[in-house]
Amino acid sequence: MSTKSGPVPWLEPPEERAWRSLRRVMLAVQTGTAHDLAAIGLSEADYEVLSTLSEQPAQTSTLGVQADKMGWSRSRLSRHASRMEARGLLRRAPDPADGRGCLLVLTAQGLDALRDAAPVHVESVRRHLIDRLAPQDLAALERIAGRLVQPRADHDPDGPPPAPHFPA
Question: What Pfam families would the database entry show (predicted)?
Answer without folding.
Answer: MarR_2
